[in-house]
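REQUEST FORM: STRUCTURE PREDICTION
Request ID: SP-0412
Submitted by: Lab K.M.
Chain count: 1
Length (residues): 229
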Amino acid sequence: MIEGMAPFIWIGLLALILFIPGLKMFFGRGGSRDALGRKRFRVRPIRRLIGLLMLALAGTTALLALSLVQFLRLTSDVPVAQVELRQTAQQQFTATTSSPRGGTREYVLTGDQWQIDARIVRWRLPALMAGVPALYRLDRLSGRYEDVAQERTAQRSAYSLDDWDVPDLGQLKRRFPNWLPFVDVVFGSGAYMPMFDGARYRVYVDPRGALFVRPDDERTAAWLKEHGW
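STATUS: Completed
RESULT:
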């Protein structure tokens, strides 16, 4: 059962389990009853404090669940994006990207190569024993120059592939390291390939979180072989 559930679902359920009794303890009325059997309101500091702590923990857990929604599951070599390039000027290309979450978008890239980066989440026990797979999130698309000197001085191009405002899981782990002991590591992975007119690529992530790119048609494969890639 757990193995088939996305991680954000069972973390969200935990937030709900904490929220309901915490809400009841914080806002609940207590005390003796009057002659008509109605409860007299009386503040109980310890009870309200415990309720407040449970609400705070529920809020943090819900924030973690929202952060995980940005990530997708990794169970095998997963195709995560397709990139098509069209040259518009010297060292300038229009990249059309397609991904499961971002849909189809266009970006202007400058340079000789394009690079895509992702963030990967891997787990430790007990989440690992429960069968929770690694997660990924596409992070950035950018252009790069083959010549290092030109890379330092020429026009740069870089775009975010995830514009959601929810805090990233890596930020949450840095802020609350003791609350996320089941997160083994959050790390970045990237891959780059040359740009030429008409090139088509497909981007994959393997189960351990390595990002890699393959040609998506015979013409691109032939060009790469001819140029020593």
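NOTES: Residues 1-5 have pLDDT under 50 and may be disordered.
Reviewed by: T.R.
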